[in-house]
């Protein structure tokens, strides 16, 4: 039985609830955006930002077709994975694309406008790999039969079978893989430089997860969005007890094992800060980050029962419980009781887990099609 998600939510412009705060560069907001959602990189929080923007501005989203929850991952993306792409004919285009996919530029361009802004987010691969190990432990063959990531990295080829191909994509250079490249390629200098140039030519911006607030300041500036458009609560995060830091030796091994991701991260960490320095003075950047954090605190006080995220058993509204995977204890939020209807709508969107929000948008965009069935909610 399909779940009708948050049926009480009306499709209204929640921008009326929030200050506009459009004091950045002149010009209309960018409304054609493609976000390559990499794995275990704070990308779920970015996805929430984009979903909210799409809904607030009545924009079309390139959503997975039928009962799927991703756009063909881990296979290279094809336009036919998008609901409505084939029915709309070869000219069908969407405003927002942000679900998991493996980047395949010619096929992405078939469903996105020519003036689309392309961006993604990267994370230090040492921490990204640790998160992947915990989250995908039961799904990835390379991780199933090893007790810890340190043990895996001490002898990775004992567990990693290259012939298994796509099923082991999360276990090595997964950000490189998400970009459409070969995650098992030797990290030879000429090859790496050529692929980094490919990324620079395809994407206008690569954000850095470790500097999320600075990333949002820069993204907001380039997209000419309101402050509230990029304010978000952290989503799909883990409890501290499910985080197992790598030993110093393990961290160095992770950089070697994921050498392609390490080069990718180092390169675009440098370009990120160079872009920030070109756009904003240090003083202005500090001011913008402070404004962002203050607005987040204001919205947390307005929306949340308390500011601390909760584990699944503590979340009272089952529709707001995030999907759980592997050993990860994925957290969510409780909303304050007694919110008026408009504030409730806004706050629900800010804490809605990604699967539920995707299903909600799918129902709004394709009301004549069967709604998505989210099995873990008890559908």
From TrEMBL:
**Where the protein is mainly located, per its record?**
Golgi
UniProt entry keywords in alphabetical sequence: Glycoprotein, Golgi apparatus, Membrane, Signal, Signal-anchor, Transferase, Transmembrane, Transmembrane helix
Quote the InterPro entries the UniProt record gives: Gal-3-0_sulfotransfrase (IPR009729), P-loop_NTPase (IPR027417)
Q: How does it sit in the membrane?
A: Single-pass type II membrane protein
Q: Does the keyword Membrane apply?
A: yes
Signal peptide stretch = 1-15
Q: Which family does it belong to?
A: Belongs to the galactose-3-O-sulfotransferase family.
**Protein name from the UniProt record:** Galactose-3-O-sulfotransferase 2
Q: Which organism is it from?
A: Bos indicus x Bos taurus
Give the source lineage, highest ranks first: Eukaryota, Metazoa, Chordata, Craniata, Vertebrata
